[in-house]
TrEMBL record:
Lineage: superkingdom: Eukaryota
Organism: Penicillium argentinense
Keywords for this protein: Pyridoxal phosphate
UniProt name for this protein: Aminotransferase class I/classII domain-containing protein
Transmembrane segments: none
Biological-process GO terms, alphabetical: amino acid metabolic process
The keyword RNA-binding belongs to this UniProt entry's keyword annotation: no
Length: 249
């Protein structure tokens, strides 16, 4: 017999935007099947890159590399302290760790809309934390107008007995970076990192990519252009067919 929480989790398998279909393409038996695009990089590996250890030199370098990269991309108002960079194997794992360390089971985290739908899984499957939505419009999620929507969502959650613990305004090779000056939170995450630590290969590849600024600049330019083309194609099709959609989303 499964535990009650396992049964509850299984019920989410049928919900949309929670789990993607399994790749099914085969050139002969299923040429119309789903293809999964992976990621490949040409990176020089050292013994540390594939070793089973957490004290490799590259591990100490990556926080500084990530901090410098984020400062350039985000144009931060103040420098990011590399000591404030906590690295896990993916943003999904960080969501799970934050839910576990910031809230108790059954409590909630307040977020605005539109937002990544799988936060419900990241924070909920293991930590049992509920994502509580503030019904903000697309153009007001980061404006003072959102305050009223947050207050309404907070009041509604408290009315049904859900305590709101923290606010999160968020909308292959995996790395996740948590940037926080909260030393206690970093220590708490470190205690469960054993279950979510990135591989040495991922750290080596990630560091090599972020250190190559010419590549990063070119990649981001191509990525933005590709996203723009895809957006124009999708929205022009929706406009032609008379289908409503979230403008600018």
């Amino acid at each position: 017999m499964l535990s009650a929480r396992a049964v509850k989790n299984i019920q989410q398998l049928g919900l949309p935007f929670r789990f993607t279909p399994t790749p099914s393409y085969d050139p002969e038996t299923n040429p119309q099947g789903l293809i999964s695009f992976g990621m490949a990089e040409n990176v020089t590996f050292t013994l540390d890159s594939v070793s089973y250890r957490s004290s490799a030199a590259i591990n100490a370098r990556l926080p500084s590399i990530a901090a410098a990269h984020l400062e350039r991309v985000l144009r931060t108002h103040s420098p990011i302290d590399p000591d404030h960079v906590f690295i896990a194997d993916s943003p999904t794992s960080l969501g799970n760790m934050l839910g576990f360390n910031l809230a108790e089971r059954g409590e909630g985290i307040l977020v605005s809309r539109p937002v990544y739908g799988r936060f419900e899984l990241d924070y909920g499957v293991e930590a049992g934390v509920e994502i509580v939505y503030a019904d903000t419009a697309t153009d007001e999620a980061f404006t003072p107008n959102s305050v009223e929507k947050y207050e309404e969502a907070l009041a509604a959650a408290e009315e049904r007995g859900v305590k709101i613990r923290a606010d999160f305004a968020s909308g292959g090779l995996h790395l996740g970076f948590l940037i926080t000056a909260n030393q206690q939170l970093r220590q708490a995450c470190k205690m469960v990192l054993r279950l979510h630590g990135p591989s040495q290969a991922a750290i080596t590849i990630g560091a090599a990519i972020l250190e190559d600024q010419e590549f990063v600049k070119e990649f981001m330019a191509k990525s933005q252009a590709s996203l723009a083309r895809g957006y124009r194609l999708a929205t022009s099709t929706l406009d032609r067919e008379g289908i409503n959609y979230m403008k600018g989303g």
